[in-house]
Amino acid sequence: MPALKLHDTLTRTDRETTPLDGKTLRxxxxxxxxxxxxxxxxxxxxxxxxxxxRVVEASGTPTLHVRNITDVDDKTIRDSQKAGQSLLDFTQxxxxxxxxxxxxxxxxxxxxxxxxxxxxxxxxxxIEKLIAGDHAYAAADGSVYFRVSSYKDYGKLSHLxxxxxxxxxxxxxxATDSDEYTKDSLTDFALWKARKPEDGENFWxxxxxxxxxxxxxxxxxxxLEYLGEDFDLHSGGVDLIFPHHENEIAQSCCSxxxxxxxxxxxxxxxxxxGGKMSKSIGNLYTLEDLAKRGYSAVEVRYVLISGHYxxxxxxxxxxxxSARQALQKLAKADKAxxxxxxxxxxxxxxxxxxxxxxxxxxxxxxxxxxxAIFGVLNKLxxxxxxxxxxxxxxxxxxxxxxxxGLTLPALADEAATDVPADIQALAQQRWDAxxxxxxxxxxxxxxxxxxxxxxxxxxKEGFTVVAK
Length: 468
What we know:
Blueprint: E1 5-8, E2 13-16, E3 25-29, H1 40-58, E4 63-67, H2 74-82, H3 87-104, H4 120-132, E5 136-138, E6 144-146, H5 162-176, E7 189-194, E8 211-213, H6 215-226, E9 230-231, E10 233-237, H7 241-255, E11 260-261, E12 264-267, E13 270-272, H8 287-292, H9 297-304, E14 313-315, H10 317-338, H11 354-361, H12 366-379, H13 387-404, H14 421-435, H15 439-451, E15 454-458, E16 463-467
Parallel strand pairs: 3-4, 3-10, 9-11, 10-12, 13-14
Antiparallel strand pairs: 1-2, 5-6, 6-7, 7-8, 15-16
Helix pairs in contact: 1-13, 2-3, 4-6, 4-7, 6-7, 9-10, 11-12, 14-15
């Protein structure tokens, strides 16, 4: 089966996602910083990465997916102390919330999910190697910095010139690195931050004194631990290209003999109502916010994959309404086909949806693929199909749905019309969690529904909600 062709940020070309070892595609995704609930802008990136993994696996290539948890940085330390909790308890709570939301969105769990705190020894070891190679230096206060001038290829991912790098470093420092540490050059970045009074009890020993690792270092150390010096693909949002991913390349290549990531995938920003998401504006939506408005996680997922991953996507409530209609249409088509081919679909081949599959293999063109899917469905007349034809069509539809990570909702005419929208949305989230085999999340949501006075009745096609 043909391999997925994916745009590479480094070379600015579309390249096949072919494993270096000829067996397994090994890739790393920058995960969440767990100091609050992830919003839909965060999840646009995670959902796009999920589709990428599903398409690679559907094309016949196994994957090894590593995604980190950032559980120590300025924000996690600050907010855990505001909450009166230990850093561990605080971040574990938000990590569990992230996992629950991932299950609701039908995200495949990563094969390995390391945390920054659990890998501080590996980060210290990497710093020692960088200092020994004269790529890093310790400041008087015990902080350690990477010397950007020591790596001649710095800027190759972001394609920035020296002047732009200096300007970008200045902006990044003012936004994320407010500590007034002394360093040799504006472009140098922190590998180890010396302990400060406001850190409280959140510090670790090191050869340079008590402190904590810099944000960029954790990904490099965990990648080396689980994927080695050379691996297939690295992914994240476009906002991470500079300085985060640029810094990862520099510190990794200077501390090892490898070339680091051989392919880079970046996902564009999510806008809301044509503008930037902002807490102050009130448009920084979480899944819980949208559930209160009556929208399910599968509807959110549909919207998040509805635009090409490399183009900015505009999120509106109208787009959620359109997603609901599209999912209902898919569910009705599946039901019509099931009356002729009632056996459970195996979803192993695209069948009549071959054009949609080929479109998806071309740089994850999801909008083109969904358009092709509906093009086939619009031409299908189930009553004229033989059992074999209906079976092929249903198998092909479920092959594409699995590649996109979409689960079919209960049909609107089968759902209880007097169920409040927020209850119906919670019930859909519980169904999505069950389909993702996240039994803990499904059970939690079931109990919430029961506490609110509602029961769930599952069937082969979906579920219904009834009053207790």
